[in-house]
Amino acid sequence: MANLIDKRLMLKEMQLESLFETISAINANKSEEDLYTIYKLTLSSNPSISNLLLFVFDEDLQEHVRYVNYGNHDHDLTERFPKLFEDYTKTSKVKVKPEGFENFDTIIPIKHKNDVLAYALVGVASEKHIDFHDSGFTEALSNIILVAIENKKLARKEEKQKETKKQLKIASQVQTMLFPRNLPYGDDVPVSIHASYMPHHSIGGDYYDFIQMTDTKFLISIADVSGKGVPAAILMSNFQGTIRALARRNMDIESIVHEANTQILESAQGENFITAFFMVYDTDTQCIHYINAGHNPPFLYNENKFSRLEEGTTILGSFTKLPFIEVGEINNLRKFFVFGFTDGFTETYNDEDEELGDDKLLEFLTANVQFDQKKMHKNLIALLNTFKGHQAYADDITLLSCKVDLEKS
User: Fold this and answer.
1) Which of 125, 111, 98 lies closest to 43, judged by CA?
2) How far is residue 309's CA from residue 264's CA, in Å, rounded to a whole number?
3) pTM exceeds 0.85 for this model
4) Which of 57, 83, 350, 368 has CA atoms 20 to 30 A from the CA of 300?
5) Buried b / exposed e across 2-14, counting CB within 10 Å, b at 16+?
6) Average pLDDT of the residues in 369-388
7) Do 175-408 and 2-152 fall under one CATH topology?
8) Which ranges carry the PPM-type phosphatase domain (predicted)?
């Protein structure tokens, strides 16, 4: 009896010393691998424990992964753990255990707040050692180790989030710099351009531009890249650089679109595409040439009526060579208005799951076409906010309007 008490006392002393060493290792910021090693060595030194498995839930893989393995048992248990665990928890009070669990006597869930981080499967060595098996200590050690590891994961996640936010902020600032800083605007100028941009996230995939090609010719464009975040922003910045370089070389609009398609395909390798609209106007010839590359057709207001600018080609970045391309041409334009937008605007839904749609946009434009552009954009955004109710914006939103009146030259 005295010998049994001495052994128990010795085991308790070893456990206390192990807990102290474990806490010291945690305070010393030991690696996760070191903490798992301490866990295994500590429990395997207990003569009553013959088998030990620790399964930790991996958020990335969305499955349990074995991190500790000790003893003689069915090693295929790793692959069958989720189903076996479900069976075992349902039958753990039954003498006949499911296949693979014969060498385990208990399962200990390790929790952090309300979440189960892991499961420890413990097998007792023999009847003579049964008194030495201390499930309370095993559970305490498991919780200390696993919570410490979870805190490490959370700390890494927070650091990663901080770094991501920092990168997104920088990317957002860079993207903002890509938009044209000074657009010609006013009631007394022959060409007036105004744009409104509302990114869904800190970095958007929409783009607009105004490029003075020659003294008499300019290009406006509006585009939307598939995908979101930094990759979309990088692709859009490359796209912008290509368009500006080609436009300033005074290339014709068809050549610009072909070159842009090639650049997007090389940059995105077919993983992303861009819808875009390009329009070139020459004040000398009083003619517009445009290409709509799979984009929402802008509205043209001329001679007191609206029409859509639909001629063009398919989306950019999906075909090595564009399967077809048509250049739209409209002549004798001395006074007109063009309004372009991305699909984030018309595809906004309200609380009744109704889409804003093109018809409501056209109705608004018809009633507000005589307003100055800034007021028009402001009223249009107010209309959108009223329409969507409690619904969030589903995508980036860009509005681009161009008014030309050569009588003001």
Assistant:
1) 125
2) 23
3) no
4) 350
5) eeeeeeeeebeee
6) 93
7) no
8) 188-404
Q: For residue 172, how many C-alpha atoms fall within 13 Å in the half-sphere facing its CB?
A: 14
In the chain, domain spans:
2-152, 175-408
The 10s digit of each residue's pLDDT in 169-222 is 776 676 677 788 889 998 889 999 999 988 766 566 788 999 999 999 999 999
The predicted model gives 261-271 an average pLDDT of 86
CATH homologous superfamily of domain 175-408?
PPM-type phosphatase domain (3.60.40.10)
> Is the domain defined by 2-152 classed in CATH 3.30.450.40?
yes
Residue with tokens 């984030």: 344
Please name every residue paired with 291 in a beta bridge, in sequence order, or none if there are none: 278
Render the burial of 355-394: b for 16+ CB within 10 Å, e for the rest: ebeeeebeebbeebbeeebeebbeebeebbeebbeeeebe
What tokens does 155 get? Answer: 């700390």
- Does residue 234 surpass a pLDDT of 70? yes
Report the residue count for the chain: 409
φ, ψ dihedrals at 117, nearest 5°: -85, -35
What is the rounded distance in angstroms from the CA atom of residue 256 to the CA atom of residue 254?
5
Q: Which residues of 159-187 are buried (b: 16+ CB within 10 A; e: fewer)?
A: eeeeeeeeebeebbeebeebbbeebbeee
